[in-house]
Specification:
Elements lengths: L11 H12 L5 H20 L4 E5 L3 H15 L4 E5 L6 H8 L5 E3 L8 E5 L51 H11 L2 E5 L21 E5 L17 E5 L9 E3 L19 E5 L4 H13 L4 E5 L10 E3 L3 H4 L4 E6 L7 H12 L4 E3 L2 H4 L3 H5 L5 E3 L3 H8 L6 H12 L2 E4 L5 E3 L5 E3 L12 H14 L4 H19 L5 H13 L2
Parallel strand pairs: 1-2, 1-4, 2-3, 4-5, 5-6, 6-7, 8-17, 9-10, 9-12, 10-11, 12-13, 13-14, 14-15
Antiparallel strand pairs: 15-16, 16-17
Helix pairs in contact: 2-3, 2-4, 3-4, 6-13, 6-15, 13-14, 13-15, 14-15
Subunit structure: Homotetramer.
EC number: 4.2.1.136, 5.1.99.6
Protein name: Bifunctional NAD(P)H-hydrate repair enzyme
Length: about 500
């Protein structure tokens, strides 16, 4: 099992193309399925120990992987049972089922086991398993039996099992029931009922402890609301070479200052204050804690830390050629004074981090016209205001916004997407839910500003800032406030 940091992320179509390229070399689908099932079996065996295992197999190749895994687990000495939703509908899955020597139970009649493996539906699912709307992203995951799905008898290709004890038991209800009864629930490639590319929940699945991604990570593993159902995610190598412009965010390489370092070589950050001075204070504190050597706050502000240099806002202060990054937007306001300060910042020819109110006062064309490196850090509301609403997935929207503006776009949220104009994307793994408090976005802007001022290229600066922000949140525990988060950037930086 491979950790996901830095790993490529492929859409369902890209993964199929990668598999087809391997098949074109003479490797058969059956061989790929055997590789996947064997990798699953060894991972499950390692995690399950001596506990009994129940594998749920669907009609497609995901189910075929499950049959292979069951056979290999039995060969390894595990106690394993198989429950099937229906007869296989692909040749490879049929061959895999034929290779399983044990009995096959009907899903509707299957009894729970301590270890549950979901191999019902994988990346090919395009419609809900039920006729009701899935839960919204802000709704907690359903409990076992809370939502009914397609009746087992209604699944195409089913053997029309109608056990008297099951009645109109649904696929989703059975999956919830069996998963809830298990002490370890593992999804193969992705939990059944999720859309591979968009992160949407086509049907609300149970929350799994672990998802074993086959061959490559998929957007579903990192985009919300789907990612919340995956639990921990690990990658299994199935012998399919993959490449992608999209990668999972990884820890940055940030070297400590050398013996010849001084405050300016570490990077000078300018933060422009506005109507809510506390937001700019947070951004400035974050820039300092993230490693900037010199931070100056331009505008009305007072109080600690004393190491923060405060000055009146002026064109002269902005003209300091030592400023390596200028952060504007946190608490800026949207009045005439804010507009004047924003205009001056854009004209100052410093690399820019544009956040908060600055994003409400600009349009994509004006950002596109800038000749300095620019990083935008919108949350969903700011993104919609700047670029318009869209039904596209978050990766597509962030990529389009980056291409449209020529800027790095950090589309914030529980599933932060960082996109560059050339199509490169970094996806941040799920961050602490406690980040949902005032001021944490200001902290992120300051941290990114410190990385940009230190000389990192804009995509690397944005990625490093997001990583430090997420790590600081993890280290802060529950119920932190933005001030705590800014302070925790120091230990996050020290962890590298």
């Amino acid at each position: 099992m491979i950790r996901i940091e830095g790993q490529p992320v492929l859409t369902a179509a890209e993964m199929r193309a990668a598999e087809d390229a391997v098949i074109a070399t003479g490797v058969t689908v059956d061989t790929l399925m055997d590789r996947a099932g064997t990798a699953i079996a060894h991972a499950v065996r390692r995690l399950a120990g001596s506990n009994a295992i129940l594998i749920l197999c669907g009609p497609g190749n995901n189910g075929g992987d499950g049959y292979v895994a069951a056979r290999v687990l039995a060969e390894l000495g595990a106690t394993v049972r198989v429950a099937a939703l229906s007869e296989p509908r692909t040749d490879a899955a049929s061959a895999a089922r034929a290779g399983w020597p044990g009995p096959i139970e009907a899903l509707a009649e299957a009894k729970p086991a301590p270890v549950l493996v979901d191999a019902l539906f994988g990346t090919g699912l395009t419609r809900p398993l039920n006729g009701t709307s899935p839960q919204t992203p802000n709704t907690p995951p359903a409990k076992a039996g809370a939502q009914l799905g397609t009746a087992i008898d209604d699944v195409p290709g089913s053997p029309n099992w109608t056990p008297a004890s099951a009645g109109e038991v649904s696929v989703v209800e059975r999956l919830h029931t069996l998963t809830t009864a298990a002490t370890l629930a593992i999804a193969i490639d992705l939990p059944s009922g999720l859309a591979t590319d968009s992160g949407h929940a086509l049907t609300t699945p149970p929350v799994f402890h672990l998802t074993l991604a086959l061959g490559a990570l998929k957007p579903v593993h990192l985009l919300q609301p789907a990612a919340r159902y995956c639990g921990e995610i690990r990658l299994l190598d199935i012998g399919v070479p993959v490449t992608s412009q999209i990668e999972v965010l990884k820890s940055p390489h940030l070297a400590p200052p050398g013996p010849d370092a001084h405050k300016y070589t570490r990077g000078m950050v300018g933060v422009i204050a506005g109507t809510m001075a506390g937001a700019a204070d947070l951004a400035a504190l974050a820039a300092m804690r993230a490693g900037a050597g010199y931070v100056t706050l331009l505008g009305d502000s007072a109080g600690p830390p004393h190491a923060l240099v405060r000055a009146a806002f002026s064109d002269h202060a902005l003209a300091n050629d030592r400023i390596g990054a200028l952060v504007i937007g946190p608490g800026l306001g949207r009045d005439d004074t804010a507009r004047v300060r924003l205009d001056a910042a854009l004209a100052a020819s410093h690399p820019l981090v544009l956040d908060g109110d600055a994003l409400r006062l600009l349009d994509p064309d004006r950002i596109r016209a800038l000749t300095v490196p620019v990083i935008l850090t919108p949350h969903a509301g700011e993104f919609d205001a700047l670029f318009g609403r869209s039904a596209d997935d978050k990766i597509t929207r962030a990529r389009d916004a980056a291409a449209r503006t020529g800027a790095i776009v950090v589309f914030k949220g529980a599933d932060t997407v960082i996109a560059a104009p050339d199509g490169r994307v970094r996806l941040a793994p799920g961050a602490s839910d406690w980040l949902s408090t005032a001021g944490t976005g200001d902290v992120l802007a300051g941290a990114i500003g410190a990385m940009l001022a230190a000389g990192l290229d804009p995509l690397a600066a944005a990625a490093a800032g997001v990583w430090l922000h997420g790590e600081a949140a993890r280290r802060s525990g529950p119920a932190f406030i933005a001030d705590d988060l800014a302070d925790a950037l120091r230990s996050a930086r020290a962890s590298l």
